[in-house]
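[step 3/7] inverse_fold.run input=structure_tokens len=96
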């Protein structure tokens, strides 16, 4: 029972981590949409999505649960981008 509770807490923390990191990566990708670095941040989102799915699959031991959690977290991430918005600003050099 204690082991199951620990796994549930770890899955919850992984989900929160995924949502926050993907939100930040999306903001950077949108900020750099006219820059070739866009590819780096978009690829990082895809790579992190794969790692998240593998981690959740390892913790839960069920591919269906992993897929449902991935879809739910992705939907929350997109909802944050839509409802909260994106970070707006200019890229400023450190030496200016």
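[step 3/7] decode complete -> sequence:
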């Amino acid at each position: 029972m204690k082991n199951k509770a620990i796994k549930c807490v770890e899955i919850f923390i992984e989900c929160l981590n995924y949502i926050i990191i993907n939100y930040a990566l999306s903001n950077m990708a949108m900020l750099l949409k006219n820059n070739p670095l866009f590819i780096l941040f978009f690829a990082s989102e895809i790579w992190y999505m794969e790692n998240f799915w593998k981690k959740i699959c390892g913790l839960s031991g069920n591919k269906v649960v992993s897929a449902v959690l991935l879809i739910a977290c992705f939907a929350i991430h997109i909802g944050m981008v839509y409802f909260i918005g994106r970070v707006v600003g200019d890229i400023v050099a450190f030496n200016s």
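[step 4/7] annotate
The radius of gyration is 16 Å.
The helical segments are 2-31, 38-60, 63-83.
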